[in-house]
Each structure stands twice: as C-alpha cells, then as structure tokens.
Specification:
The structure holds 3 protein chains of 3 kinds. Chain A is built from 10 helices and 12 strands. By secondary structure, chain A is α/β, with parallel strands linked by helices. Chain A folds into 2 domains: 141 residues, Rossmann fold (3-Layer(aba) Sandwich), CATH 3.40.50.2300; 157 residues, Rossmann fold (3-Layer(aba) Sandwich), CATH 3.40.50.2300. In chain A, the strands form 2 sheets. In chain A, strands 2-1-3-4-5-11 form a 6-stranded parallel β-sheet, with helices on both faces. A 6-stranded mixed β-sheet of chain A has the order 7-6-8-9-10-12, with helices on both faces. Chain A is globular and about 60 Å long. By secondary structure, chain B is mainly α. Chain B has 2 domains: 102 residues, no CATH class; 233 residues, no CATH class. In chain B, the strands form 2 sheets. A 3-stranded mixed β-sheet of chain B has the order 2-1-3. Chain B is globular and about 65 Å long. The relative contact order of chain B is 0.16. Chain C has a domain of 234 residues. In chain C, 69% of the residues lie in helices and 0% in strands. In chain C, helix 1 runs antiparallel to helix 13. Chain C starts with 12 loop residues before the first helix and ends in a 19-residue tail after the last helix. Classes of the chains: A alpha/beta, B mainly alpha, C mainly alpha. Chains in contact: A-B, A-C, B-C. The interface between A and B is large, with 42 and 40 residues.
Chain lengths: 336, 414, 367
C-alpha cells in the first residue's frame, strides 16, 4: 500500500469534516420528536403528513424538533427511547402499529409526553391518541360520489388493507348507500401504497365496469388511480390532503377539473396542534378524536369542479356534514 | 423414481389436479343455473353503450367443460409422451385457471373482457422491456439481475429531467440515457474487474434504492414544491386500427412506451436471429473462445450489449414515472425487474417467448385487479398472490426445457 | 489482462490481515464518499458521523443494541452463504424469515408447553418452517430446473402475503388495536442476557453458535464437502458419485433453516409478537453480509455486527443531523461494491493484487 495515498485521503476527509463544522449553529432544545412507522418522512403516506406537521411546528412555533425514520418494526421501542433521551418534551409515534411500544414507553418514562397517530391512548396518563373518523370522511366522499354518478356505479381504489384504509372504504360504501340505496360500490385493495401504475389500472378497470366516480384511498396507489380516472373523464375524489393541490398540481395537471373533492384527514394538523398544546402548556392525555365535529376531518373544496356540482348536491353535503357534526347521522362503520 | 416422474407426467398430473380443484371451486361457490357474461364492447364504446356482443356463459357448465378439456389433454400428453408440448399445456392450464376464476368471480354479473385484455398489454410493457434488456445482456454472456435497479434509477432521473424541462419526451430520453449509464457500473464491474455478475447486479439494485430515495427527498420534492409541473406521455390512438373491436383497445389505444414495446419485440427478434450483429452476440454468449478466434472482440461486444440493454431497461423505467403515472415514488418498480427475469427465462431467451411470459404474469395481475371489484370470497392476500404462484408454476413447468446461453455469467479472459 | 499466479497460503496474522484489509478499506472508502454526499447537501458531517459512531458503539448499551441488530443478520448472512457455497443464490431469505417467525409465534402463543421447553420447541418450529420454505425452491431447482433466483423471489412474495393473512385473520390478537398476533407465552421467550433494557437476548449467542456450526459443517462433514464440491463443479460432483439434486435440496433447506432461525430469534427474543404489513428487508441485506464475509462463516459475525452498527447508529445520526436514512443505504451499497470488486480498492490504495480464492457464486442460470 502506498502510504502517501492513504494519508492524502485521510486529510481530505478531515478537511471535509471540519469545513461545515465551523459554521454549525447551535440547535434549539428538542421540544417535539417524531418516530415514523417503517418508511420515510417523505413517502407520501401518514409518515409524510405527520412530518409536515412537525415542520410547521418548528417554523411557526420556533421550537427545536427531531425525527427518526424507523427501518424495522423491531426498532419502534428503541427509536422512541432515543427521542426520550434527546429530552424531547413530547414524542409522537406515527401509525397504529406502534401502540404496544408507546404503551411500554409511557410506563417507563412517566415524565415524557407521548402521542400516537391512528391509535387509541386508552387511559395512559401521559399519552394522547390522535384518532380520526376516517369513516366520516369516507361517508361524505361516498355521499358526494353517489350524488354525482350517472351510471349508478362508483368505486374506490384502496391501498393496503389496514384499519384507516378499511374505515375509508366502508364509510364510502355507507355514505353512498345513504344517498342511493341501489348504488353499486366497487372496491379494491392493492398491496402497496406506492404503486401508482396498478392503482391507475384498477381505476380503469372500474371505469370499464361502468363506474364514473372513483375515490382513491391508498396513498400514492390511490393517487395514481384518480389521476388516470380523471384523465379518462371520470369524476374523482382524493384522500388525506386536498389532492387538487398535490396530485393535480394545483390545477396544472390534466384532469384537474374532474377532482370534485378530497376526503381530508389532517394528520399534519393533528400533529401540529398537539405540539402547540405542549408549547402552550395545554397538553391533555386521552384520545383526541378528529371528526367532522371539530373539523379534524372533512371534505376539501370543490375547486375547479365547483361549477359541475349542482346546488342541491352542495346543500345536501352541507346537511350531511351538519348531521355528522351533531351526531344525527352515524356512519355505522365498525371493523370486525 | 425419477424415471417415473417424466416431465409430461408431472405436468399432466398438475393439470388434472388443477381441473379437480376447479370442480371443487365450482361446487363451493357457484349457484345452480348461474350465468357469467363476458362483454365485448365497441372499440371506443362507453360502458353504458350497447355492446358489440354479450357472451352469456353458464358458469358451472363452462368450467366443467374447460376442466374436462384439461383432463383430456393431460391424458393425451401422458399417453402420447409429448414432453415437447408440456410448456404449451402449462400455458393452457394457467389460461383455464384465469378464465375459471374470472367466471366464478363475475357470477350472475358481466364484465368487460376487452378492458382486461388491454390492461394485460399495458401491464406487460415494463416486464417485456425488462426481459428484452435481459435477453440482450445474457445472449452475449452477461447475467443481468440489475434490471430492477436500472429501471428504478431511470424512472427517477427521467422524472427529474421531465420536471426540469416541463417536457416528458425529454424526460423519456433522459431515462434511456440514465439506464444506459448506470448499467455501465455493472459492465465495468463484471467485465473489467471480473466481479461475480450476480453481485455487481445486486450492487446496482441496492445502490438504486438509496440513490433514488435520496434524489426524491433532495431534488424531486423541492422541485414539485417549487411548482414544476408536467404531464404523463400522452395516449395516441392509431387512426382506423384503434376502432377495430377487441384488437383496437388491445394494441392500438396506448401510450408511446407501450407501442415501443410492441415494436421492439419483433425488432429485437429480427436483430438477434437475422443480422450479423445478432449472430455475433449469440456466438459470444455460447462460445466466446471460438468467437474470439473468428476475430470478434468479445468484451467490447459485451460492453455494447450491456449498454443497449441499459437503454431498454431505462425505457422500461420511464414507463413507471412518465407513462403509467406522472410521478416518482420510492421503490416504485415494486419488483417488476425480477418478474422480467422470470419472463426472460420462461421465453427461453427469445423476445416473443419473453412477451408471452410477461403476458401470463400481467394477465394474472389484471385478473386480480378485476375480480377484487366483484364480491369474491377469497381474501385479498390470496388474490394478490396469484401472479407469483403462477410464475413459480410456469417456471417449474417449463424451465427444464429452457436453455440459457452457455457462457452466461462467465467472464471472458482472452 | 494477465492473471497473477496464486499466492501460497500464509499463516498467522498475515492471512487475517489480508482478509480484513480489503473490507476495512472498502468501508472506509464508502464512508468517505458518504461524507462527500453529506457535505454536498449542506449537512454537518461531524454531527452525522459522530451520531453514527456514538449510536453504534458509544456506550455499553449502544453496543448491546448493535449486537441485537446484528443477530438476524448473522443468521441471514449464514443462510445466503451456505447457498453460495453450493453455487446457489438464495434471495428468498426474506420470505424464509417471514415463515420462520410465523411458525415460531404460532407455537409460542398458541401452544401450551412447560416454560423453557416451550421456547425450545417454538424456536425449532421456526427454524423448520424456514427450512421447509427454503427446501421447496431447492426441490424445484433440483427436479425441474426452475432457477432459485426467480423462485425464491416469488416465494418471498407468497410468504409475505400468506403471513399477512395469517396475522390479520386467524392469529390476530383481537384485543389489540394494532394488527398483530398475541404476545407469546412468557415461557416461550428467549431470555434477555442483561435485562430487558439492553434488549440483547440469547438469540445472539445462538447466532454465534450457528456460525461456528456452519463453519464446522462446511469444513468437516461429508455434507459440507458435497455442498462445496457441488458449488465448485457440479459435473465433477456428479461423476464423483454425489447425488447433486439431493445436495441442492439439502443446501436450500439448511439455508432456509438459518433464515428461519433469524425469524424465530427475532420473534421469541425481541418482539414477542408478530406484526402485520411491513418488511424489514433483512433478507436483501443478508446478501451483503455474505459478501462482506467473503463467504467465510466466521467472517459473517464481524460483517453482521458492522451492518448492525450502521443500522443502529443511523437513528442517532438522523437525530443529530437530520439526514435521511437513504444515506445509509448508499453507504451500504458502496461497501458491497468495493468489497465485491476488490480490485477497485486495490487500485485506489495500490495494494498488490493477491489473487484471492474468489467467491464463486453464480454460474449463470444453467445448472
């Protein structure tokens, strides 16, 4: 081995290491930490939305935040622990699979606050459960779809068959039947959240069976579905975020006039508000249910499709929203 | 023992067992007198329009007949000792299974069968192109399991460039170039450094996941947030041809990459078997030493073939991010590159064979998408499993007859 | 290019130095490139690599965690390696792990046995489950010629879908809001070595034993000899009177056995239940481990520990610098590239090319 080569390399590395270190700024103490489910903070699923909430908190509240991307389910507990040891005041776990890990951590670290997305906190003293009535969002989407269909057939492209997705799908069916009892609702679960191509093919398949309103409820798989369906002329409904803004590029994408709404589940808002509560000293334990009643879920604006939606449909949707809010309408959705 | 289980006997037995399973399926889930209707619409017909024809099939009876045919053919296969027809029979078994499941799923209902056929062709596109890339590589004696990674990388770069220029066509070219670039890592590692070819392929597969994930975070998302827009490659209906019933939706109402796939299958076939270049390619894949003495520069030729194969895999990658959707997601190729290898082996390293292998897989995929829309008793996990099970069955049934290029995987040292 | 004459085997630390030098330099080079990428994206290299280092081996507990992460990789690396030795490329470790952990959890949670014995039986069930799942592609390869690279990939998908179904329907813990099986009985747990806080469980020790056992099997037993001969030259093995198809099936079963143990150890030692949906990717990383180990069963141990360290340190790296986990993937890929193509490393550092025995992994698709 030529020693000089090695030496040069070592010096280069050291130089590279030192360079940015000089300009390193002192970080704020960690107020809020986020543990993703297996996946990345930008993977287009609830991981990403939770991360958006975290970023918003960092920016708007001027606090220090940290996050860890989980690589394996075995690491849930370890990652939560890492954030606790970084002295994060609240540790937020994304995803219903982390229920056991949060339960364990809450007993082990009674002085730290925890929150878990999509799972119940039950009675733990220092945990807040951020749960969503996806069924209500799906119900409204289904009602809107049934109001807009001419063929009497509507469809939903679901992602992996997990509780949040199942609640969307079942709520969608229930909502549709509430408008037209004889409406045919077709559904499919696709085994991944990241296969737009197959989502698109599923949507086209439904269209060939006569479906003319498609609801995409499966991350990017669903987005691929509604994108393809909108281009082919069907009305579509997005999920989680206002997909007019995301999937349809704020109206720039083809078919943007076909997205009539999105069933919104604002994980980002829930995460942000939870952190804000911690900052304001208003953190409470127990479940925080985000439903129609508190605006945690709902329908996105009609955007470019506004003109296509009859006034009586809009009125009906207002009524349903009101009914869901005051409890006079229930979706009747239960899992298992 | 081994003497008794000849190929045609095993395959025939599989066919008979399958037939029995189908009978059981019918007994279990098809009500008496049920009708399944296959609908063939006009080429540009809407779902609510009157169809060209509705074919009402008595569900149970049709499946009984199909199962009976399977048994009869199996008996003939075993009695006639027609081992040569085993692969064709296997294909038949799978086709019967797919049709039977479809009929069972749509019992007392109807489905647009042409729509499913069109989907088959579209979903077969990346698999076929990937398999063509594999064929070009392997015919020249280089194993290429890097197709998955090459596609992923090309999909990512193609999408970035397309966002940057706001033009998917430029993105398409970029994807092809990106594929040809990253595959050169494989070429250099395996041809120059003589690394095991499976390993250098694995390197690309792992590298592509990391690099594209990184690029998505640090390049694509900021670009999208910054308002870079674009649209997928547009659909072109071929005038006149596209309005032929059945054939129109199957072959002439597609987007560019699907057409390119349909063109490239015969093209590569001709190039491989009818041109001097093809002859040389096959020569260095079968017997590099002999080819060398004939004055062929073996390694240069292999570099060239790997490079071309990267371009085709790049084209396959562009299908994901620029044709089938307009976006890039982490690991969006979802294992299609490996399915492509299976299709290549199924097709005995020939382009048309690879196409039929890809169509078998995509038919199963199209089937599972189709039948989930109906109330079908099987849990979704098992329906989703179908394409993979079928691929295994196909491989087990056929590959014994498939013969890879003799020198594949071996570095050549002149 | 001329082939340098094979160097005669030398004894003592020189050999070990020679074996270790390339992987170490490969890791070093990959980390340097990783540093360049970090700098290019404007992040803080000291914070990142400091975090990676501290998170991986900065404290006794960090070391314990690294060993925990390394455990499935040791089994997985051995699984791939055993296949390599017979010229078989088992990409199906992922699926075999899934089946192994499923079998282990079924026995652990739904069968009643005396404590201790319960753990042993559950572990064996997991190992055998993996072995069976590996043996089927082996059988297909031996009897029909279906290539194991393809069939094992397909078997991965099939295994993952099946376990998904089993977890979500027949074996679901209905009392839990997460989609998972019930917890295994306490008597079925593989005990922790230094308390639950350090997470290190006896599965790690079993992994060490498995590595030694594998080395012994390959070196000293007839089946090991048959595996190696089949790997080196199947024709020769055939003419020497060996039953090559049987060896192939046995190899794949043995390989699956290791993978099954990985799953069983993970479930019985660490997680104590099995959760639905997401895959951890141990199977694919195991290929890298086998490569890093240069196909030496004992080499799998340091290779897996290194890999576990990268994975374990990634968390703190991310906390300190906000860098994506993707960077770790890139570094991992580069490490494999440099280890596999050791000549690149040799060129960079001007090391005389000692023609290593080389790892014969693939002979194409043929036989």
């Amino acid at each position: 081995m030529r020693k000089s080569t090695l030496a040069t390399l070592v010096i280069m590395v050291l130089a590279a290491i030192m360079l940015p270190a000089c300009g390193a700024k002192t970080a704020l103490p960690c107020k809020a930490g986020l543990v993703t489910d297996v996946g990345k903070v930008n993977d287009g699923t609830f991981n990403q939305y939770a991360y958006m909430g975290l970023q918003k908190a960092e920016k708007d509240l001027g606090i220090g935040t940290k996050y860890i991307e989980t690589q394996a389910q075995a690491d849930y507990g370890k990652n939560i622990q890492s954030l606790v040891e970084q002295k994060c005041e609240i540790v937020i776990a994304v995803g219903f699979m982390m229920g056991d890990a949060i339960k364990e951590a809450s007993g082990k670290y009674p002085d730290t606050k925890f929150a878990i997305v999509d799972n119940s906190a039950s009675t733990l003293a220092n945990v807040r459960g951020l749960v969503f009535s996806e069924d209500q969002a799906g119900y409204m989407a289904g009602a809107l779809a049934a109001s807009m269909t001419k063929s009497g057939t509507i469809a939903v492209v679901g992602g992996m068959e997990i509780p949040p997705v199942q609640k969307y799908v079942k709520g969608y069916e229930a909502g549709a039947k509430s408008i037209k009892a004889d409406v045919a609702v077709k559904s499919v679960y696709i085994d991944t959240f990241t296969d737009r191509a197959r989502g698109a093919e599923a949507a086209k398949s439904f269209m060939s069976e006569g479906a003319d309103v498609i609801f995409g409820a499966g991350g990017q798989t669903g987005s691929g579905g509604i994108q393809a369906a909108a281009e082919a002329g069907a009305y579509v409904i997005g999920v989680d975020q206002d997909e007019f803004v995301t999937t349809f590029q704020n109206g720039g994408a083809p078919g943007a006039d076909k997205i009539i709404s999105s069933a919104m589940k604002r994980v980002d808002q829930a995460v942000f508000l939870t952190i804000k509560d911690v900052v304001d000293g208003k953190f409470t334990n127990g479940d925080m249910l985000y439903s129609a009643a508190n605006g945690g879920i709902g329908l996105a604006p009609y955007n470019k499709a506004d003109g296509a939606i009859p006034a009586e449909v809009k009125t009906k949707m207002e009524e349903i929203l009101k009914g869901l809010k005051d409890g006079s309408i229930t979706t009747g959705v239960t899992l298992n | 023992m081994q003497h008794f289980f000849t190929r045609e006997r095993i395959i025939g037995l599989i066919g008979i067992i399958t037939a029995l399973a189908l009978l059981w399926l019918v007994q279990q889930s098809v009500p008496n007198g049920a009708i399944s209707t296959l609908r063939i619409p006009y080429a540009n017909g809407k779902p609510q329009d009157a169809p060209l024809i509705d074919i009402p099939l008595p569900t149970a009876l049709t499946i009984y007949v199909l199962a009976g045919l399977l048994v009869a053919a199996a008996v003939w296969l075993i009695w006639g000792k027609r081992a040569d027809l085993a692969p064709a029979y296997m294909g038949g078994v799978i086709a019967v299974v797919i049709v039977s499941i479809l009929l069972t799923a749509i019992v007392n209902n109807r489905t647009d069968i042409v729509d499913m056929l069109g989907r088959m062709v579209r979903l077969a596109t990346p698999i076929t192109l990937g398999a063509l890339a594999g064929i070009l590589c392997e015919r020249s004696g280089v194993v290429n399991i890097a197709i998955e990674g090459t596609m992923l990388f090309a999909a990512c770069i193609g999408f970035i460039v397309s966002l940057a220029f706001g033009n998917s066509w430029i993105g398409l070219i970029a994807a092809i170039l990106a594929g040809s670039a990253i595959v050169m890592i494989h070429a250099v590692l395996s041809l120059y450094y003589k690394t095991d070819q499976i390993i250098s392929g694995t390197v690309i597969n792992i590298l592509a996941v990391g690099v594209t994930g990184y690029l998505r975070t640090s390049v694509i998302l900021p670009m999208e947030a910054g308002g870079n827009h674009g649209a997928a490659l547009p659909q072109f209906d071929i005038p006149l041809l596209s309005s032929i019933p059945v054939l129109g939706p199957m072959f002439f109402q597609h987007r560019p990459i699907t057409y390119l796939m349909l063109i490239m299958v015969p093209l590569v076939s001709i190039m491989l078997f009818r041109t001097p270049w093809g002859l040389r390619t096959r020569a260095i894949g079968e017997h590099p030493r002999a080819a060398d003495t004939m004055g062929i520069n073996v390694n240069r030729m292999r570099y060239f073939n790997v490079w071309i194969s990267g371009m085709i895999a790049g084209l396959a990658g562009a299908w994901f991010s620029l044709e089938a959707s307009y976006n890039f997601d982490d690991v969006m190729t979802n294992g299609r590159g490996f399915i492509a290898l299976a299709a290549m082996i199924f097709g005995n390293w020939t382009p048309f064979g690879a196409l039929s292998g890809a169509l078998l897989f995509s038919a199963a995929d199209a089937l599972q998408i189709k039948i989930q829309g109906f109330d079908f008793a099987l849990p979704s996990q098992f329906v989703q499993m179908l394409p993979y099970v079928i691929t295994v069955v196909v491989l087990a049934g056929v590959i014994g007859r498939a013969r890879p290029p003799a020198a594949v995987g071996k570095p050549y040292e002149p | 290019m001329s082939t340098p004459p094979p160097t005669p085997p030398t004894s003592g630390w020189r050999t070990w130095g020679g074996i270790l030098l390339i992987p170490i330099l490969a890791i070093f080079t990959a980390l340097v490139i990783g540093a360049i990428i970090i700098v290019a994206t404007g992040a803080d290299v000291v914070a990142a690599y400091g975090g990676l280092f501290m998170g991986a081996i900065g404290s006794p507990r960090a070391i314990a965690y690294t060993l925990v992460e390394a455990t499935p990789y040791i089994f997985g690396g051995l699984a791939v390696l055993i296949g390599f030795r017979a010229g078989l490329f088992n990409i199906g470790v992922e699926g075999q792990i899934a089946v192994g952990s499923m079998c282990a959890v079924i026995v652990g949670a739904f069968v009643h046995l005396p404590p201790g014995l319960h753990a042993v039986v559950a572990f064996i069930a997991g190992a055998l489950g993996g072995a069976l799942w590996g043996a089927i592609p082996g059988w297909l390869r031996a009897r029909t010629g279906a290539h194991e690279v393809i069939t094992t990939i397909m078997f991965n998908y099939i295994a993952i879908r099946s376990t998904d179904y089993l977890i979500k329907v027949p074996f679901l813990d209905k009392a839990s809001s997460s989609q998972r099986t019930p917890f295994i009985a306490e008597g079925a747990q593989i005990p922790f070595l230094f308390g639950a806080d350090n997470r290190l469980h006896a599965g790690f020790l079993i992994a060490l034993v498995a590595a030694i056992a594998t080395a012994w099997i390959l070196k000293r037993t007839i089946i090991g000899f048959e595996i190696k001969t089949t790997g080196a030259n199947p024709d020769a093995a055939h003419y020497a009177g060996m039953n090559v198809p049987r060896t192939i099936i046995l190899t794949m079963a043995l390989s699956g056995l290791m993978a099954g143990m990985a799953g069983a150890a993970q479930v019985l030692g660490l997680e104590h239940n099995l959760k639905a949906s997401f895959s951890a990717g141990y199977g694919f990383d195991s290929i890298a481990i086998a490569l890093l180990a240069a196909s030496n069963p004992l080499g799998v141990i340091p290779a897996a520990i290194f890999w576990g360290a990268l994975r374990n340190g990634a968390g703190l790296m991310q906390l300190n610098s906000g860098i994506s986990i993707n960077l770790i993937n890139i570094v991992q890929a580069l490490v494999i590239a440099f280890v596999a193509a050791d000549q690149i490393v040799r060129q960079i550092y001007r090391i005389r090319s000692a023609r290593s025995a080389g790892i014969t992994l693939s002979r194409g698709w043929g036989r």
